[in-house]
Amino acid sequence: MRPTLFDEFIARYPTLSGKVGQLRPNVCFREFDIDLASTICGSTYVIPFVSDSHCLVTRRSNGKWVLPGGTLDPGETWEEAGRRELKEETGCTLGDLIPIGMYYCVSHRDRSRLSHLPHPEHVRVVSWANVIQNTAERFDPDSSSRIVEVWTVHFKRAAELFGPEAADFGELYQFAHILRLSQCSSS
Length: 187
Prior knowledge:
The protein is α+β, with helices and mostly antiparallel strands. It has 6 helices and 9 strands. It has helices spanning 5-10, 14-17, 34-39, 78-90, 155-162, 167-186, and strands at residues 27-30, 41-49, 54-60, 65-66, 69-71, 92-94, 98-106, 121-134, 147-154. Strands 1, 2, 5, 6, 7 and 8 form a 6-stranded mixed sheet that branches. Strand 3 and strand 4 form a beta hairpin. The chain is globular. The two termini are 27 Å apart.
């Protein structure tokens, strides 16, 4: 079988590709699949670009840098959740969401933490998008995600902020940058 563009790109990232360590037990990063995203998506994450090389990153009250995004509300699609979460966490409105992959997860818990979420299998869609409006509204209005900071940083700096404990998040910023460049230059 011939490798896809996704396979060629992802092979450059040891944590995402599974070549180094393991992401987390029962989790693997894979190519985006619209059928899985439409049926068993539980959460969505977005890498928001404010320029060709700069993105937004978010930090929680516990000090951890995290991917902007979160859990789908009942009846919400991954795209709707991505837009809503970004607005809540960063105060920004996004252009088109371009999926770059998804975490495929299998839970060993008895049930989902929220009754409307798929269980035991679910996916977390990861996309990139351009920020088209940065509003003056305060971010994280419902404070459920506990986001305390939003920074604009170079995509390489984002990878450093996540550090070794979340190396896959850093790789996602780098991966999104490369895919964004290739997709923008081909259009």
